[in-house]
Amino acid sequence: MDIWQIIILSLVQGLTEFLPVSSSAHLILFPQLLNWPDQGISFDVAVHVGTLSAVIWYFRHDLLPIVKDGLASIKNRKTTGQSMLFWGTGLGTIPAGLAGLFLSDHIDLLRSPLVIAATTILFGLLLWFADKNADNNHKSEHHLTISAILIIGTAQAIALIPGTSRSGITITAALLIGFSRTGATRFSFLLSIPIILLAGALEIHHFIALQQQQNSSLIDWNTLITGTVLSAVSAYFCIVYFLKMIEKISMLPFVIYRLVLGIFLFWVFL
After folding, report:
1. Would you give the distance in Å from CA 6 to the centre of its chain?
2. DSSP string covering 98-131
3. Which of 60, 71, 120, 265 is the most buried (most CB within 10 A)?
4. Handedness of CA 158, 161, 163, 166 (dihedral sign)
């Protein structure tokens, strides 16, 4: 990988992981459109570590109380404080975790530009539909129920299909069941923590297996460190400004972007 490929792919991962536009789709498309070699599993792990670091740092003041209240709810056998957020991020991850475990080989078959084009448009229109009446939604991330967790968690499993967007589909599901834009977005970001951890662990497992198979220990640490730092910084600022912006505007700009991108991909690859 040359320096521009490293910079662009790191920024793409950092900027699109938390926007409703699908980071996986962009990481698949950029190398194809620019005729770059595949960046490899190790680089994917590095940029995922970067985005994970960014969301943990952003929510650093929230996570400890959430975990404390979650553990207290186990001890007291009843919900307390922010314990539903603790259970929400845990239970909401199960559908995507199971789907990834049993369907990953089949999902790989869908990593094509035309599939991405179709899902980019389809789920962009669904986001637009969900966002139309969001001004009347008032639930925050603190209004979670078991049914809401299951609905949003199941939606997250659909994001395994390239082009869907994990943040996009979870925000869409939350908006459809009455959450405000800010509440839907904040819970989507919190829900990203365990799923990125699981995805990163799976990629590390694949990377170790590949290294053993090839009997190679050569790792380009400069590339991986650069990718991690750039994706972390860009992801952090993306989270900060997206949450500020979403309080003032609708999801329409992201819907328009998805429609334009989907049409462009059909035009290029059909």
Report:
1. 20
2. HHHHHHHHHHHTT-SHHHHHHHHHHHHHHHHHHH
3. 120
4. positive
Angle between helices 166-176 and 113-131 (to 10 degrees): 30
Listed in sequence order, the residues at least 6 apart from 238 whose beta carbon sits closer than 8 Å to its beta carbon are 14, 15, 17, 18, 19, 54
Round the average pLDDT of the chain to a whole number and report it: 90
**For range 209-213, the mean pLDDT:** 72
Q: In 3-state terms, what secondary structure has residue 36? A: coil
The total number of structural domains in the chain stands at: 1
Residue 211 belongs to what domain range? 3-269
Cα of 178 vs its chain's centroid, Å: 21
Burial of 43 (0-12, 13-18, 19+ CB in 10 A): buried
Q: In terms of pTM, does the model score above 0.85?
A: yes
- Phi/psi of residue 222, each to 5°? -60, -45
Lowest mean pLDDT among 150-164, 216-230, 231-245: 216-230
Q: Is 179 helix (H, G, I), strand (E, B) or coil?
A: strand
User: Which has the closest alpha carbon to 161: 91, 229, 111?
Assistant: 111
pLDDT at 218: 65
Report residue 217's pLDDT band, with 50, 70 and 90 as the boundaries: low
Residues near 110 by beta carbon (within 8 Å), at least 6 away in sequence? 161, 162
Structure tokens at 38: 């595949």
